[in-house]
Automatic annotation (TrEMBL):
InterPro entries per record: L-lactate/malate_DH, Lactate/malate_DH_C, Lactate/malate_DH_N, Lactate_DH/Glyco_Ohase_4_C, Malate_DH_type3, NAD(P)-bd_dom_sf
Biological process, per Gene Ontology: lactate metabolic process; tricarboxylic acid cycle
Name recorded for this polypeptide: Malate dehydrogenase
Organism name: Apibacter muscae
UniProt keyword NAD present: yes
Enzyme Commission number: 1.1.1.37
Native organism taxonomy: Bacteria, Pseudomonadati, Bacteroidota, Flavobacteriia, Flavobacteriales
Amino-acid positions noted as binding NAD(+) in the UniProt annotation, renumbered to this chain: G7, A8, G9, A10, V11, G12, D32, N95, I118, S119, N120
Pfam family, one: Ldh_1_N
Residues annotated as domain Lactate/malate dehydrogenase C-terminal: 147-301
Gene3D superfamilies for this protein: Lactate dehydrogenase/glycoside hydrolase, family 4, C-terminal, NAD(P)-binding Rossmann-like Domain
Enzyme class: oxidoreductase
Binding-site positions, substrate: R82, R88, N120, R151
Transmembrane regions listed in the UniProt entry: none
Function: Catalyzes the reversible oxidation of malate to oxaloacetate.
Length: 312
């Protein structure tokens, strides 16, 4: 199995590091446009092999996509991150061209590859890749919900004192500060509903902290986060490469599910060797349905920007 990570920056290198350590692929390729950076990160990661005790072959490439030929899964992290005070949506002008270009380069050498899109604004970039390449919807997966759900679990754990590893909690909707929907009503810990562990005010605060989780880190770091995003990217790749059939919230193309069509937005999906193998339709209540509708409208408005920019 072969995985390519495009973008050797903070998220791409962290994702590559996690994939390499897991030993889930025979070959890992890292590509970046900046001369020498991908080769340098690949060599640096390779030199952790004997210390950490894994054995994955890692190669770097400055924009030579012939080295990516035969890729099963490509992770796209190329593009600019936001700075404090910016939204993810502010990145569309720069990142749309980069993602479109990179995705078509991957497909040129690996026509059967499954694409995992991380670059922001992620739901819009996922839609752009799907529409511009005309790929089957099972092969385009936006990574956002996996990360947002892990943040949701962190804040639930901090508020309640129970282990993050015992928590089941899901974030659906757009991967945006105002569009994501942490499903507090459905969050459980070993089968115990969180309404038994936290007050409604505490749950509301957890949801608010989750929604601005990325912005909080961006303010602290001066740029956006990479450890949890890189790990979440790896988890998506792992479920596909190992055909694990894990249920992970991802941005996928909806064709009537959740009452929405012609949009990529976060919902729980089963991920296996064919990419998106099933979309899980949760039994949302009326308030959650309304929130999902509003989130979808905001995501749709950003998709329209792609047409206005003539990238689609
Ligand atoms: N979806 C998510 O959950 C999530 C999480 C974190 C970050 N992100 C997004 O991921 C992207 C990357 O973030 P980062 O912190 O790694 O940024 P970064 O600046 O550290 O790295 C980006 C890399 O992309 C490279 N690049 C730019 N144009 C390229 C091209 N045409 N071809 C190949 N490489 C190219 C740059 O040279 C750079 O090395 C940002 O858009 C960020 O907003 C998304
Ligand atoms: O917050 C960002 O801009 C990056 C990413 O989408 C995240 O949630 O960490």
């Amino acid at each position: 199995m072969k995985v390519t990570v495009v973008g050797a920056g903070a998220v791409g290198a962290t994702c590559a590091d996690n994939i390499a350590r897991k030993e889930i692929v025979d070959e890992l390729v890292i590509v970046d446009i900046k001369e020498g950076v991908a080769e340098g990160k690949a060599l640096d990661l390779t030199q952790t092999t004997s210390i950490l005790g894994f054995d994955t072959s890692i190669i770097g490439s400055t924009n030579d996509y012939s080295k990516t030929a035969g890729t099963n899964v490509a992770v796209i992290t190329s593009g600019i991150p936001r700075k404090p005070g910016m939204t993810r949506e502010d990145l569309i002008g720069t990142n749309a061209g980069i993602v479109k270009d990179v995705a078509s380069n991957i497909l040129k050498y690996s026509p059967d590859a499954i694409l995992v899109i991380i670059s922001n604004p992620m739901d819009t970039m996922t839609y752009l890749a799907l529409k511009s390449l005309g790929l089957n919807k099972n092969r385009i997966i936006g990574m956002g919900g996996a990360l947002d759900s892990s943040r949701f679990k962190t804040y639930l754990s901090l508020a309640s004192g129970v282990s993050q590893n015992d928590i089941q909690a899901t974030v659906i909707g757009g991967h945006g500060d105002t569009t994501m929907i942490p499903l507090t009503r459905l969050a459980t810990c070993q089968g115990i509903n969180f309404s038994k562990l936290l007050s409604s005010e505490q749950l509301q605060k957890v949801a608010e902290d989750t929604m601005v989780g990325g912005a909080t880190l961006t303010k602290l770091l001066g740029t956006s986060a990479w450890y949890a995003p890189g790990a979440a990217g790896m988890a998506v790749v792992e479920s596909i490469i190992r055909d694990e059939k894990k249920i992970i919230p991802c941005s996928v193309y909806l064709d009537g599910e959740y009452g929405e069509s012609d949009i990529c937005i976060g919902v729980p999906v089963v991920l296996g060797k064919n990419g998106v193998e099933k979309i899980i339709e949760l039994d949302l209540n009326e308030i959650e349905k309304e929130k999902f509708k509003a989130s979808a409208q905001a995501v749709r408005n950003m998709n329209q920007v792609l047409f206005d920019m003539n990238v689609l």
